[in-house]
Design a protein that fits this description.
Shape: elongated
Number of strands: 0
Order of helices and strands: HHHHHHHHHH
Number of domains: 2
């Protein structure tokens, strides 16, 4: 029993340390103290903290406090995305859209956007609406574009709100009604 309690306390201590490292790294990142952010985020990312992996990837992607390394950024975004962290899924999608650190693949970009959008991540919902509107990585589909833009607009995304207004005249009333019904019933994945 003592061993179980000791193991439990060590687990709590390790999680608290990871959490503290991420929070300190995030604060340094927002303060523009990139070298300090890197030093704080690396241990948390190495321990598997998806938020730290995503933040560290941003440092490598932008060359903030480190040499820019798009491949390292992609690897870190993927580690965090594989854990279901929506921001990392979105960031990885952007890399696949542009071919930074990975081979450009619009279909794979759309898949990662879908994952994050289904979790309720508003930037992905807006971008996925655009993908369906343009047929970028997915079939051209005004109903789906309107659906995703409706979800993003409900969360006050101005671009999605404008986009919905722009395509409404291209849709039938039935398409609009279906998209709005689906949006009203949407429940994000967790």
């Amino acid at each position: 029993m003592k061993n179980l309690i000791a193991a439990f306390l060590l687990l709590i201590l390790a999680q608290t340390t990871v959490q503290a490292g991420f929070l300190a790294g995030e604060a340094a990142l927002h303060a523009g103290q990139f070298e300090r952010a890197h030093a704080e985020l690396v241990p948390a990312a190495d321990r598997g903290d998806a938020r730290a992996q995503n933040a560290l990837a941003l440092l490598y992607l932008n060359g903030w406090g480190v040499s820019a390394d798009h491949s390292a950024a992609a690897r870190l975004f993927r580690q965090a995305a594989d854990q279901g962290y929506a921001r990392a899924e979105h960031n990885l999608a952007l890399l696949y859209q542009t071919g930074r650190g990975v081979e450009k693949d619009e279909a794979l970009a759309a898949d990662w956007l879908k994952r994050a959008a289904r979790r309720g991540y508003v930037p992905s919902q807006s971008d996925l609406g655009y993908a369906y509107y343009t047929g970028q990585g997915v079939p051209h589909d005004l109903l789906r574009a309107y659906f995703w833009w409706t979800l993003a607009a409900k969360r006050l995304d101005l671009e999605a709100t404008r986009a919905r207004e722009d395509i409404i005249f291209m849709m039938t009333a039935h398409q609009k009604d279906i998209a709005e019904l689906l949006a009203a019933q949407f429940v994000p994945d967790r």
